[in-house]
Amino acid sequence: MSVPREITPHRAVQTLMTGHFIERSGYFAYRPKGTSDYLLVYTLAGLGRFGTSDGREHLVKPYDLVLIAPGIFQDYSVELSKLHWEFLWSHFQPRADWLDLLDWPEIEPGMMRISVPDAMQQEVSTCFRRVHQSAMSSGPLRDRVAFNALEALLLLCEQLNPNRSAHCVDQRLRKVMDHVIRNLEKRLTLENLSEIAGLSVSRLGHRFRELMGVSPMVYIERQRMERAKQLLVMTGLSIKEISHHVGYDSQFYFSLRFKKATDTSPTSYRNHASAHDH
């Protein structure tokens, strides 16, 4: 078929974003360079298609889950012979300990699929709906609740994963990511992280981008911003204290980076969360 060339816009996802679409013939999404996050799509009804960069297609039927890794060609649409395609979707940045849960059978490099058997279709559907409902709710704990729901979904999918006994997670990257999470208040350099991983700086950067879709330094800043959001909502620490807790010597520079990541200042973020919690 003739694939539309208009590139579908996509805003970089810091944590998690979800949706529930019921689309008619003519709907498509086309991103030749993929996205910097993982994309999970679960078909509920109708028929969808996922294209490849060389023109081939994979059709997805109800209760098929498709997972696309960061940086992988994306071209999906309603299958031409069908009038609609209903699906749940989530773009997300995985936690460090999720890497083994994202090792699904590949139908193309970086494009994976699991078909849910009859006995588990209702459970998986309910679990994915819970992810979407949590992400769309209000309140300061929304992202954390949605992330927990997504982890529950991935754990449920792991029971269906034929690769589960053959997982080969790169433990070197997990060590790096765990170190980052435990030491956000400290100065973190590529040289230090490469020593922890036992890899060269260039190899660490390449491997990290391959699995996570971003560089190690971008990953570090994202984790710092997520920790800062938690501290802003859950504690009475001053902005200066929070900036130090997440590794910034300068409160001014922290505030600049926070606003770039969230489109709001730390103070406004705290006030908005407080207002929605009452």
List the helices and strands and how they pair.
Blueprint: E1 16-24, E2 28-31, E3 38-46, E4 48-51, E5 57-60, E6 64-68, E7 74-78, E8 84-92, E9 106-108, E10 111-115, H1 121-136, H2 142-158, H3 171-182, H4 190-197, H5 201-212, H6 216-234, H7 239-245, H8 251-262, H9 266-276
Antiparallel strand pairs: 1-8, 2-7, 3-6, 3-8, 4-5, 4-7, 6-10, 9-10
Description of the molecule:
The structure is a single chain. With 278 residues, the chain is α+β, with helices and mostly antiparallel strands. 41% of the residues lie in helices and 21% in strands. The strands form 2 sheets. A 6-stranded antiparallel β-sheet has the order 1-8-3-6-10-9, with helices on one face. Strands 2-7-4-5 form a 4-stranded antiparallel β-sheet, with no helix packed on it. Helix 1 (121-136) runs antiparallel to helix 2 (142-158) and helix 3 (171-182) crosses helix 4 (190-197). It starts with 15 loop residues before the first strand and ends with a helix.
Overall shape: it is: globular
Percentage of β-strand residues = 15-25%
Weakly predicted, low-confidence segments = none
Describe the main β-sheet briefly.
Answer: 6 strands, antiparallel
Q: What class, by secondary structure content?
A: alpha+beta
Taking Cα atoms only, what radius of gyration do you get, to the nearest Å? 20 Å
In total, how many beta strands?
Answer: 10
| Average predicted confidence as pLDDT | 88
Number of helices: 9
Elements, N to C (H/E)? EEEEEEEEEEHHHHHHHHH
Overview in brief:
The chain has helices at residues 121-136, 142-158, 171-182, 190-197, 201-212, 216-234, 239-245, 251-262, 266-276; strands at 16-24, 28-31, 38-46, 48-51, 57-60, 64-68, 74-78, 84-92, 106-108, 111-115. With 278 residues, it is an alpha+beta fold.
